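Q: What would this chain look like folded?
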Amino acid sequence: MLSFKKTFPRCVLIVILILVVFLFPSSARADIAPPEQPPGANLLPESTVTRVRMVAETVLINVGLTAPSGSLGQAQVTADFTMQNVGEASETMAVRFPLTANDGFFNYPEITGLEVRVDGQFVSTRRIELPGDDQLIPWAEFDVTFPPDQDVFIQVVYLLEATGEYPYISFKYLLETGAGWQGTIGAGEIIVRLPYEANVFNIIFDQPIGWSETTSGGILAEDEFRWDFEELEPTSLDNFQVSLVMPSVWQQVLIEEETVAQNPQDGEAWGRLGKLYKEISRLRRGLREDLGGQELYTFSQQAYEQAITLLPDDALWHAGYADLLWNHYYYYVYFSDQPDVSELVHILELLDRSLALSPGNSVAVTLLTEIASAIPEAVETDGENFVIHYLTATPFIEPTATTTPRPPSQTSEPTATTSPTHTPRPTKTLGLTETPLPTNTLPPTPSLVPPTLAATSTSTPAQPGLQICGVPLLLFLPAMRRRKKR
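A: My prediction, written as structure tokens:
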């Protein structure tokens, strides 16, 4: 056995390394971002010295319901500019519009379908290349004459690809290029138009999604999100962005909601709806904490409860429900000062039931493997078996295959099927203030739109303390939690 003098320096080194990792994390993003698509942008004058002012602009980002193969989403952008020469002499210049941008991986995808009108007439554009960060960047250029004291109307239309990864996308529009014109931009609005009702469920507000965060201060109205400004001297801080649920995914939500409304005893439809709600309520790490995300988490609970009530012998819906609750428990309950173990017990009951119905099913086995790795006092592996300590009975469950821990954002449930019809989604009324994420589940309810779940908490004994070199691991958990929730 090693002596204290030999082991103490090693223990000190381990503790220092843990503190460095969790208290002083790298400034780099915890999650890599998807490749950036070229954003839209304001017009740029050829010269930095001009008396032409952009007195007004309206940008419509019209999001399509469908997109070409390989595309996460697509929008047609129509940007209308009212320009006015406030000087005394006429100006003729080349007006420029960027065609591409670095996608973050040193690729330069281009916008497509560019059309330009000046005072209602189509004008031809020419392709030029100007120096960029590390290579020549293509721009579209066209000539415009600006007589003094006369409005000139310019319209630019093009197709814009979404940036993102399932189930979220974003669109961006750069206002900063408008700083090249005389004075401020007098007034403007940016409109994001969806092919269905715009709401806090399909637009993510007050919540970064890793590569995008919706610009604050906008207004929701029917199928639109509007953002207005006046007398703006634009900088990079004024660039607009919006985070959305992928239209194809939201369309599937609408279809499944209609299915359960018409067939409330369809357990498979309730399960598919619960899975969709789950997917759009979670991020790579943890859950959406915006108001819409919290409501979606509640809706997912309710839909899963309906599924397992109507289909008590379906193993995968039990495991899928456990996956939803585990993601919430791990990120929002487990690292609290007094974690409520009742939710974990419910998760284990669901997984125990799932494996009893379908021994060795990969969804339950993978999730139990992850729980055993994170909370060995609750579940441990004994060879090819699981020992579930937190249940009254302690069954030995035999998986059919060894699996590796699963990131909480992945699932292996049945994929949703498309219903042939679609009707508008029922309106969901929300409160004006955010509520904390729920920590336990409600009994099943037959309503299509479950009511908001009030959060409750039950004090339980503190979590058993794991130790490193005699130092309780609990001392490091607050720092670990802060890092995980970014």
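The radius of gyration is 27 Å.
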